[in-house]
User: Which sequence fits this backbone?
């Protein structure tokens, strides 16, 4: 576990998001998986999710979100000097999805790289970009969270109901270093002992693709729902308390919690532990389910474009993902 980082001089200048057109309802999943629409909504808070077309890769969703974020920030593609894509469903094992996004955007001035932290990926990506910007290494960063879990879902398993497809993006840029606005603190953590709680076993160097891995369905994700719940409700409050301590703020100072969207039960339990009124916890899982790396930036874009993120508001980000990976961050909105 690493120490928290106090960040100065970095703000979010624009946000964007994109979800595919196709809607898959809980009732549709009842036809193929051992679950019910009623159970899904009651336990997860999900009513429907978006599904990418067969010809849509993760990079395609990421590019659409990126274009919208740049337009919102009133920046050109040529202004971007760093691209980070957080994804657990890359277009290919190589090259990085970020390089593919760079090419599709025409962002020839940008360095591009992926981050693999699953549902925590966008939070990790924002932290990495913030360090580069604060150091003056790059000027403007495009951080994207994008996933197409529909490509690796076993639709006959009960856990098929958790995920949907989507992408969100944020443009990060400089704020004067002595400003009291922008990012205030990040806390990131990892624990590899949790690697079996959520995993995609096949396709890597441990279990290379073969007739046997396909037969054993190792290329689909596998999740221990109980382990995810226990990990999330244990580590998220701790990470949040640490960034609050870093900044001298209390939970009462937080205007919005924009978390990744694991399940409504995890978010309600986390809010209860923290003493945070649930109306300050932003959610959209009822419409999109868990879009993994896309959850935080899609939700951020929705809240931002609603006009609620006015100057001086304190926004708390939090996520837990496979690994385990988890973390929290606070920004004072500019």
Assistant:
């Amino acid at each position: 576990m690493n120490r928290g980082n106090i960040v100065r001089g970095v703000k979010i200048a624009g946000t964007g998001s994109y979800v595919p057109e196709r809607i898959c309802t809980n009732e549709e999943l009842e036809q193929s998986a051992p679950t019910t629409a009623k159970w899904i909504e009651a336990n997860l808070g999900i009513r429907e999710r978006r599904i990418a077309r067969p010809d849509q890769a993760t990079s395609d969703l990421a590019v659409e979100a990126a274009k919208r974020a740049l337009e919102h920030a009133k920046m050109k593609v040529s202004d971007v000097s760093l691209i980070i894509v957080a994804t657990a469903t890359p277009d290919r094992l190589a090259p990085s999805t970020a390089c593919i996004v760079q090419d599709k955007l025409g962002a020839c001035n940008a360095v591009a790289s992926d981050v693999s932290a699953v549902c925590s990926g966008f939070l990790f990506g924002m932290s990495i970009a913030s360090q580069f910007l604060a150091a003056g290494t790059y000027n403007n960063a495009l951080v994207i969270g994008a996933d197409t879990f529909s490509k690796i879902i076993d639709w006959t398993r009960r856990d098929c109901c958790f995920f949907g497809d989507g992408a969100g993006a944020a443009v990060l840029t400089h704020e004067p270093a002595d400003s009291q606005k922008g990012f205030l603190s990040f806390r990131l953590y990892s624990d590899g002992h949790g690697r079996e709680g959520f995993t995609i076993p096949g396709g890597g160097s441990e279990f290379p693709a073969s007739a046997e891995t396909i037969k054993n369905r190792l290329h689909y994700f596998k999740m221990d729902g109980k382990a995810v719940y226990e990990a999330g409700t244990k580590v998220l409050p701790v990470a949040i308390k640490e960034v609050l301590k870093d900044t001298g703020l209390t939970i009462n100072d937080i205007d919005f919690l924009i978390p990744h969207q694991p399940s409504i039960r995890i978010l309600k339990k986390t809010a209860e532990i923290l003493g945070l009124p649930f109306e300050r916890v932003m959610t959209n899982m009822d419409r999109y389910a868990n879009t993994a790396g896309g959850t935080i930036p899609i939700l951020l874009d929705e809240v931002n474009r609603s006009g609620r993120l006015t100057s001086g508001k304190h926004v708390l980000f939090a996520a837990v993902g496979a690994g385990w990976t988890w973390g929290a961050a606070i920004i004072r909105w500019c």
